[in-house]
Amino acid sequence: MSAAVCILSGVPIADDPAPRPDDPFEGVVLDEDFVRSAAVKEQSGRARMLAAKWKQQPPQPEPWRASADPAPAPARRRFGRRPKPVDPWGRRRRRNWQTPLFVVLAAAVTLAALNVDRLNGWYHRGQESSALPATGPATAPAPAPATTAPPTAEPGTPTVEHPWAGSPADAWKAGADALVLPEAKGQGVFDKEEVADMLDSVRQYLVLTNLDPKTLHGETPAAALAMMDRTSRADLEKALAHPTADADATTWLSRFDPRRAVPVTDVVKARGTMTFEGDGDRGLLVHTDYIFVYALRPGPDAGVPRPGQSTGGGGNGGGTAKPVALTADAAPRVEREIVRRQQDFRFYDPARYKVQRGKLFLDKWYAYLGNNVCTTGSGYLETDFSVDFGLGTDEPRTGKTVDPYDPNQKLDDREGCDTLSRS
Length: 423
Known about the structure:
Blueprint: E1 5-11, H1 32-36, H2 45-56, H3 63-67, H4 98-114, H5 116-131, H6 192-210, H7 213-216, H8 222-226, H9 230-241, E2 261-263, E3 269-278, E4 284-298, E5 335-347, E6 361-370, H10 386-389, E7 401-402, E8 416-420
Parallel strand pairs: 7-8
Antiparallel strand pairs: 1-6, 1-8, 2-4, 3-4, 4-5, 5-6
């Protein structure tokens, strides 16, 4: 296996939102919703008139209301027991247990008379079986010969049937089960329940942007965008609509161009941590650090340079001008892409800052794309299938050899290509 390629990308810390002014009534709109939600409401004119009249002349009870007697409460039986059954002469009835017994015996005799032959055969078979000698346990039949050849893949090579073979992610949890929330505790102006809601919203965002099959297959994550603060949402929408090398959507989320890379399974292996801390008057800060592992096969356009992309050796293009297409009897080896994301989400105190309550504000984020070509700017993760397509891997390497599964590797804001020790 040739060396794989990684790219490390970083994004600067986002600016804080504008502080909220001292005037508490700034921005308040006196519309119908505001009036309906008022805690104290003015009485109507008729209510005020009747109150003044009753203060001088208290209302008198009406005759029919004063003379009406309450309905008597129904009598209750002692301990809720039912009356004992008696006959017309007042004598206590006794249950007759003999009649049902006679009916059952008569039915059994009738059925036996109608099946005399079957009873006789059953009796003789019982005698014959008791006369047979005892035998040992039966031996299992010999296994049928194999109809298919054993797999030719080397041990540890990922395949469609075993996409995690040879990877430490084979023992990791899959999907949302890997995103374990820490125990919520009150922090600053936020109580325990509010912190729990914030942690859960971060988890939902990570699922929608890194695990959702629709997002992985290239669709726009509309639900994730709806969870974001207007500033963070505007940045991601711009990167999705007009991706560039400096603003690529893959620094926020994981998505693949189905023409170039197709997930062989909707299962995504993941491992990492989520923590939180108070940040003074700036509110609550949630830290996330997760590694996501995806198993993919080449799409129909895998290895074909994109328009404007360099096709010669070296530079950001990488590879050769004419990729080698796979034949029908040469199934491509499954490749794994390992993506590590460090993202910080901040929840500002809405009493101090002009923010949208309950929305996610991305403070800073880094992405390390393992087994991804160094060329970026397409808005999709570009899995390296160079081995399957006979492409050269002469992209410039500016870093060192790293293990993409190592959670202790420090991520910073540098950019460049590294060599993977494994994928």
